[in-house]
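Input (structure):
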């Protein structure tokens, strides 16, 4: 009996020590960079410039150091940085097809003749930050060297270059490896001692599968792509909004300071969106507490496009310090219009009334405060695109919306509670 008692106690002690060790490992590998307390903002080349490395025939649009420096200067000196945009992000195709003799990644000297560190220094000198792209698999999506089997070396290299943000894609690997691969990069980032924003594509490859491990993703990443890549069309933007609306109840609970769902880039200023649709993308990204990464040509934007991208009242919703993601609270039976609501830190609410259908004339719509999940009978209402106080509304808001993807965005401040 005594032998059994000692053996059993030893077994229990070993189990407890094992659990304690697992807990310690769990804590030590969680992302710990103190970044993205509000959704990050900046510019990312991918949607607009893709993998254009032909600087000989298309120097104006190839993904060279010159392009990134031009965008950084425009972001700095045309006012984008003043309203919160700060990251200049390099996407795929920046490197050579093979690693160097020492096993390290090598930037393409035709695109970056002075190297990435020199570009980082120049961007930092403007008070901005620089981001870079890699892939967890054996190759990037464009076929360049991936980081698998080179995680520590690659992450340490990025830190030595002065990189401030890492986007990690998920091509050329089995999605079953993500649950160990992405956290391994998290640990390597922590170990550098440099605060590097971490953007994961982990759930984007799982969005059509059940039980996406968002708890683990939020523990290891600052932001994460959830769904398909955005394309330069209203249909693409609308599909993303629809998907987030259908899944908001699951996604919103994981968003908050340090952790954000990412519906992909802002394409305002490209070729696919009308004025109304551009307002809608900006409004809906703010409602979703999304990272605001422009992918456009800042050299050619029209004034109305700049005004939308630098609308400080809409940006304030996106950057609200409480970080509570907005959700779709109403959709009509025919899915022609819908309402979204987002609670803000000051006790007010951001509201979007969004018309999806493309038929007929402008129509009036009424969103009741009850539909908007706002517990009040009367409220002050402000239009965040016209920058006008609309006065005191009772029971709800009526707004006229034209067809084909228009919206109205309001800040609603309850006057009194009904309790």
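Output (sequence):
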């Amino acid at each position: 009996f005594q032998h059994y008692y000692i053996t059993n106690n030893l077994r229990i002690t070993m189990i407890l020590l094992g659990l304690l060790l697992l807990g310690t490992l769990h804590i030590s590998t969680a992302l710990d960079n103190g970044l993205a307390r509000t959704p990050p903002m900046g510019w990312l080349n991918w949607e607009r410039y893709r993998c254009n490395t032909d600087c000989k025939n298309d120097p104006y649009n190839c993904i060279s150091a010159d392009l990134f420096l031009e965008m950084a200067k425009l972001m700095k000196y045309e006012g984008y940085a003043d309203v919160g945009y700060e990251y200049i992000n390099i996407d795929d195709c920046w490197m050579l097809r093979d690693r160097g003799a020492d096993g390290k990644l090598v930037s393409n000297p035709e695109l970056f003749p002075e190297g990435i560190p020199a570009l980082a220094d120049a961007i930092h000198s403007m008070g901005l930050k620089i981001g870079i792209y890699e892939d967890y698999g054996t190759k990037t999506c464009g076929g360049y060297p991936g980081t698998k089997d080179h995680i520590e070396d690659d992450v340490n290299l990025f830190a030595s270059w002065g990189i401030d943000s890492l986007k990690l894609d998920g091509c050329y690997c089995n999605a079953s490896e993500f649950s160990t691969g992405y956290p391994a990069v998290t640990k390597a980032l922590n170990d550098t001692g440099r605060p590097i924003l971490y953007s994961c594509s982990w759930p984007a490859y799982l969005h059509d599968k059940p039980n996406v491990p968002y708890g683990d993703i939020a523990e290891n990443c600052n932001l994460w792509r959830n769904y398909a890549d955005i394309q330069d069309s209203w249909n693409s933007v609308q599909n993303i909004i629809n998907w987030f609306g259908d899944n908001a109840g699951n996604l919103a609970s994981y968003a908050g300071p340090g952790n954000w769902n990412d519906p992909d880039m802002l394409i305002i200023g490209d070729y696919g969106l009308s004025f109304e649709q551009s307002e809608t993308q900006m409004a809906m990204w703010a409602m979703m507490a999304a990272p605001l990464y422009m992918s456009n040509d800042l050299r050619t934007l029209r004034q109305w496009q700049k005004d939308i991208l630098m609308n400080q009242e809409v940006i304030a919703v996106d950057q609200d310090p409480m970080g509570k993601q907005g959700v779709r609270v109403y959709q009509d039976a025919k899915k022609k219009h819908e309402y979204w609501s987002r609670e803000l830190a000051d006790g007010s609410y951001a509201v979007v009334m969004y018309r999806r259908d493309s038929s007929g004339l402008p129509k009036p719509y009424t969103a009741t405060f009850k539909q908007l999940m706002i517990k009040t009978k009367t409220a002050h209402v402000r239009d965040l695109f016209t920058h006008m106080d609309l006065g005191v509304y009772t029971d709800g808001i009526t707004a006229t919306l034209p067809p084909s993807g228009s919206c109205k965005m309001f800040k609603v401040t309850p006057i009194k509670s009904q309790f």
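Notes: Residues 1-7, 15-28 have pLDDT under 50 and may be disordered. Residues 356 and 405 are 5 Å apart (CA to CA).
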